[in-house]
Amino acid sequence: MKRTIASLFLLGGLMLQSAFLASAQAAEGAVSAELVVPPAETYVIGDNIPLYWRFTNRSTNALGFMWEGCCRVNGRLTISREGQEVPPIPPSQALAHMFAKAEVLAPGKARDFESSLSDWVQLPATGTYQLHGRYTGVLDSQRPQVPRGVNLWRDAAITGTNQLSVLSVTDYLKERSERTAKRGLSVELSGALKFPVLGAADWHLRVRNTGGQPRVFRWPTDFSIWIVNAQGVRESRVPSALDGEYAEVTLPPGQQFTQPIRLDYARMEGEPPGKYQIFIDLQKAADGAPRVPSNPLPLFWEFSTNDVAQLVSKAATGSKAGLRNPALKFLRVYLAEFKPQLQAATIPAPETRAVELLEELRLAAELKALVPQPGRKDWGITVKPSGAWELADEKSLILLGAEKAPLENVQRLAQVKRHLGLDLGLVLQPEAKATAATWFATAQALSPVAGELAAPVHLRALPEMTNAVGVVNIRSEAGAANVVILLTRGTDVLQMRAAVKFPDAQNPRALSVFSPGDFKSMRPITAPSQLLELVSDHRLGAPQVQVFCPADTTLAELQHVLAPLWAKVNQVDLVAAP
Question: Which of 218, 323, 451, 522 is most buried, judged by most C-beta within 10 A?
Answer without folding.
Answer: 522
